[in-house]
Amino acid sequence: MQVSLLAAGGVFLLVLLASNAVRRAFMRHVQERGTDISAADTAGWLLFFGLAFLAAAVLGVLNPSKFLNLAFCSTLLVFGVAALVGAFVIGRR
What we know:
This protein has 93 residues and is an all-alpha fold.
């Protein structure tokens, strides 16, 4: 039982590291399109948190008995989608 928790934590950590790399690439892409540095930074962080929320929701849906209940997973999913929408809206300015 502990091994599965460690594996899930390790996978979640890898997803966060990959999300950080995606955040930096997205920030650079948005800056190259002529967006403010502060707006690009905000859009990048919203993308990072959106991906993190979605990863946590997927982790909870895959094994709800160990990690999260349905109400918490749906809240993470809503905030994740909202953060991704915010990132793309701010990145388009």
